[in-house]
Write a structure and sequence with these properties.
alpha+beta, five-stranded antiparallel β-sheet, 26 helices, 40% helix
């Protein structure tokens, strides 16, 4: 039975290995798998053989040099039964024990393949460590290897020593009691054990010496790296201990001739005393009596080291700091100088509108959009606009249960279809996003492209596609518009996946996925291709296992194809004197905590990070391209050499792809956490810690333990810039201070440019605004509190802001969703912008944007549009026009509103014109019907139906106005008091 299980396991392992090899070969990354496997196998074999050999030698030498006659003592008499039991199986034990230990050691060594490859292909950093005068590359590439080698040698020699001690004891080479003439070890046992102990001490001496360098990564309360005590107490102690360990090793070797353990035992005791006194007591005394009384002065040089190294390691050396005396008084026309920035303010929240995309563009239940959509920029009508974009992916969970079977799941429903894109700065009068790319087949501004999405974040585990030319199409392509059951079928014609034309390959995949249908189904034929490992992040991780990947891949339409863009990072925890950060913790924000498609970059501590690679995954054929983004990064150069230059140079990035590359979020989240402390670049100020900052918790998220606010992509104009630039932004508040005033603002230039093979000058430039301590500018949490309690009125509504929110929150049929809280440096101060959504209850409900709240200094305003809210905030005229001007039924700038008498001032503007009597009559009838339906719904407390009736009423009124430009009045029947009902006031006018 065990043999059968072992054979089945071996068969499964072989099938997985072969299919993996086919997968890598199909992508053109065969060398990645081969190099990794050969390295792991080589390390496994080497470590296993060395461990087994050394342990076996300890056992064999102990047995080989046993006394011919065991001493006749009570102790040895008691051991006779152990010898009698061991002798019949001695050969088996001497083989099995080293073999098992060798397997464990080999497995542990194989896991260190990255350490070994980096050591073999190590590169210089061109930066010198300030304490030892060595290139930083030694700490990053070589030090981990030598630490691994020392740990391995200590383990192997320790196991061999244990085996030798047991063998010598069992066979009489060591006696714990008595011994002839007082000697408790035979000559052979003494020499054997003395040599092993001497070797262990030599290795320990090497460990003490190497520990000197690892002190530069020691974590302290304030900094990472060596402090005054480390340099003046621990560092010389490690050198002394290394010499002492070598002397102690010499004492053990001397026992070969002195024939006594007295000297080495004394030496070992002395080593332990030195380690205790010099390694523990002495540094504590130095810290207590030398450092603590004058800590600020003595630690200053080491704090400065840490500051400089940290800024280099996180690429923050060139940050531009500006003292920003933020204006807090809002005055008319104040935004006139920022007229180019205001139209680009994004009011569509990509983390909220996914249900809206799904309802309006999902088409069928078997399509879906991710919970958090993505922000990009596209040229629409000759203008570059910030865009909210999402891929329409396949959702097998949306297929009815009676249609779920192996054939449908894996050969019919195989792909999603197209992308959907909306303006980021506009919304419809109903509060919906305004799409410029939509529908199936796709129609819009993105031109012709391959819309089929075979590789995405929600693709099925695997699909089998392709068929001979003479067979009818099997795969569902897309439903036919206007027909509930109509559909178009398609056959995959791309080159993605692995060909499955042979029986052996089908059998291998059947074993891998444990589904016999792969071998037996008629759907699998000579032209079939297996598409698996389809998530873009997973595909990049498999071909570049040495990268940390950003948690939020995003799609872009490039060159007629949909491509997923994935940012890759090289990281290290060995950069000397640089601040350690827990990667998994500092990259968590409110979006990652709530959206299932935004994942973690991974855990572990790092103190060096670079966005070294931009990767793309083709959504149609799954092809993966890796492009070097930071060609100067030594880690990237080392990995490129290790994996035979699988990373293409920056020059291979074409201009169209370059236009969609951006500064990555996870890198920025790490950097902003570092900057919260290390924006203080003076050692004295850093020591006091009075000016440390913190990233604000996201006040739009309710509940305890609120995660941090995410950084936001915005087109902003920072001081010193002449025009808006697509940037990634964040805000800071004081650390450990009950006051939550804004203390800093950071934006990094995220625009990569459009030139092939060349990053735009200025990309990655980080700019920081430092607010004076004596200036009180409300922080995000304070602004959110103001929203919830504000009694501000709006010209567009008949109630205060708090009344609007409370009425919608208290209504049983609706809920309020607070959108992303954006901050922009405009008008000489800081402007907050937050869209607010209202969502009805029910399975098909989706959020609609109803209002936008803005604040500047101590002033707050709100309206149905951003443009209206800004005008109200700045005394009736902000001096600039927002992108949603006119989107909610209000006249845009430059259009005169109808004054009621037909004199709106211009030909063709509706100020005069003939009445369309038929259209007017129909509109009036629709107004009456919508009003009646609304009153009926109000009586039944059916808030969803009431809201729908109000939308119809608004639309009918708009048609009536259009049909009769001269104006007039409309009377509708019903309860005159209905307009005073609180629920009615929750709707827009």
């Amino acid at each position: 039975m065990l043999i059968v299980l072992a054979l089945l396991s071996l068969l499964g392992w072989g099938a997985t290995l072969w299919t993996d090899l086919l997968w890598f070969q199909a992508l053109g990354f065969r060398e990645v798998l081969v190099t990794r496997l050969l390295t792991q196998v080589g390390l496994f074999v080497l470590a296993a053989v060395v461990t087994a050999g050394v342990v076996w030698s300890g056992l064999w030498l102990g047995w080989r040099h046993r006394p011919i006659y065991a001493p006749s003592t009570p102790e040895q008499a008691a051991l006779d039964r152990y010898r009698s039991a061991l002798d019949p199986v001695r050969r088996l034990v001497f083989i099995a024990v080293p073999a098992v230990l060798g397997l464990f050691a080999g497995t542990a060594a194989a896991a260190q393949w990255q350490t070994v490859l980096l050591f073999i292909h190590r590169q210089p950093f061109g930066e010198v460590d300030p304490e030892f005068g060595m290139d930083v590359g030694f700490f990053v590439f070589s030090l981990p290897f030598w630490q691994m080698a020392i740990s391995f040698a200590t383990l192997v020699l320790g196991l061999s020593l244990i085996g030798a001690l047991l063998t010598h004891y069992i066979y009489g080479g060591i006696q714990l009691q008595g011994g002839s003439r007082g000697r408790r070890t035979t000559t052979a046992a003494r020499i054997h054990l003395a040599v092993l102990l001497a070797l262990i001490l030599v290795v320990r001496a090497a460990g003490y010496w190497v520990e000197r360098f690892s002190l530069s990564m020691t974590q302290h309360a304030r900094i990472t790296g060596m402090t005054y005590t480390d340099v003046n107490a621990l560092l010389p102690t490690r050198s002394i201990l290394a010499v002492a360990a070598l002397l102690c090793a010499a004492f053990f070797i001397a026992t070969i001739w002195t024939r006594t353990w007295r000297l080495p035992i004394v030496g070992l005791a002395g080593l332990l005393v030195i380690a205790l006194v010099l390694g523990g007591v002495y540094p504590s005394l130095v810290q207590q009596f030398r450092v603590n009384p004058s800590e600020a002065q003595l630690e200053a040089p080491y704090i400065q080291r840490a500051i400089d190294s940290t800024l280099r390691a996180y690429e923050l050396e060139d940050i531009e700091k500006t003292d920003y005396n933020a204006v807090t008084e809002a005055e008319p026309g104040q935004l006139r100088s920022d007229a180019e920035t205001i139209p680009g303010i994004r009011i569509v929240d990509p983390s909220i509108v996914s249900p809206t995309f799904r309802q309006l563009q999902g088409v069928r239940n078997y399509y879906q959009f991710p919970e958090a959509l993505d922000v990009d920029r596209y040229e629409v009508d000759g203008e570059l606009v910030d865009t909210v974009i999402a891929v329409r992916e396949l959702n097998l969970g949306g297929i009815s249960a009676d249609q779920r079977n192996w054939v449908n799941d894996h050969t019919v429903y195989t792909h999603g279809f197209g992308v959907v894109a909306s303006y980021g700065n506009r919304r419809s009068p109903e509060g919906e996003p305004i799409f410029f790319e939509q529908n199936i087949p796709p129609v819009g501004e993105l031109g012709e492209y391959e819309p089929r999405i075979y590789f995405g974040e929600s693709s099925p585990e695997y699909s089998i596609v392709g068929a001979p030319a003479d067979e009818p199409p099997r795969e569902l392509d897309y439903p036919v518009s206007g027909q509930d059951t109509g559909e178009v079928r398609n056959t995959y014609s791309g080159g993605g996946g692995v060909a499955m034309g042979t029986f052996a390959r089908r059998a291998a995949y059947a074993i891998k996925y444990r589904q016999v249908e792969i071998m037996l189904s008629d759907s699998v034929n000579s032209e079939s291709r297996m598409l698996d490992h389809r998530d873009p992040r997973e595909r990049v991780a498999r071909v570049a296992p040495w990268l940390r990947l950003d948690g939020n891949p995003y799609p872009a339409v490039v060159g007629g194809r949909v491509k997923w863009i994935v940012d890759g990072y090289t990281v290290s925890d060995r950069y000397p004197y640089s601040q350690m950060e827990e990667l998994g913790e500092v990259t968590v924000d409110s979006v990652q905590a709530t959206a299932d498609n935004v994942t973690s970059i991974g855990g572990g501590q790092v103190n060096y990070i670079r966005n070294s690679v931009k990767a793309t995954v083709d959504a149609y054929d799954g092809s993966v391209d890796l492009y070097a983004w930071d060609e100067e990064d030594p880690l990237l150069r080392a990995w490129s050499a290790a994996f035979d230059n699988t990373v293409q140079p920056l020059s291979e990035i074409d201009g169209e792809l370059m236009a969609h590359l951006r500064y990555p979020e996870d890198l920025f989240k790490v950097q902003r956490e570092v900057l919260a402390r290390y924006h203080v670049d003076d050692a004295g100020s850093f020591f006091t810690g009075q000016d440390f900052w913190a990233v604000s918790e996201d006040p739009t998220v309710s509940g305890e333990n609120q995660p941090d606010m995410p950084p936001y992509y915005l087109s902003v104009t920072m001081p010193g810039q002449e025009e808006p630039t697509f940037s990634l932004t964040t805000t800071y508040i004081p650390r450990g201070d009950e006051r939550q005033n804004l203390t800093g603002y950071v934006a990094v230039d995220a625009e990569a440019g459009t030139t092939s093979g060349e990053r735009r000058e200025g990309y990655g430039q980080m700019r920081m605004l430092v607010l004076p301590r004596d200036t009180t500018v409300r922080g995000p949490g304070q602004f959110q509190n103001d929203i919830n309690s504000s009694d501000a009125n709006s010209e567009a509504f008949g109630q205060t802001l708090s009344q609007f929110l409370n009425l919608n929150r208290n209504a049983e049929a609706s809920e309020v969703l607070m959108g992303n809280l954006l901050t922009l440096p405009v008008g000489g101060g800081l402007l907050y912008v937050e869209p607010v959504y209202v969502q009805a209850q029910g399975g098909n409900a989706f959020p609609l944007q109803r209002i936008v709240v803005v604040a500047f200094g101590n002033d707050l305003a709100w309206s149905d549009t951003l443009d209206g809210a800004l005008d109200e905030l700045f005394g009736g005229d902000s001096g600039a026009t927002a992108g949603d001007a006119g989107d909610a039924g209000r006249p845009a700038d430059g259009e005169a509103p109808d004054d009621g008498d037909g004199a709106s001032g211009g030909e063709g503007d509706g100020g005069s014109g003939e009445v369309d009597q038929d259209a007017l009559a129909q509109a009036l009838a629709d107004i009456q019907a919508a009003y009646d339906d609304g009153q009926a719904a109000l009586a039944e407390s059916d808030w969803e139906a009431y809201g729908q009736a109000q939308e119809r009423l608004r639309e009918a009124i708009d048609r009536a106005v259009e049909a009769d430009p001269s104006g007039g009045s409309v009377s509708v029947g019903g309860d005159d008091d209905a307009s005073d009902d609180g629920a009615a006031q929750t709707q827009e006018p």
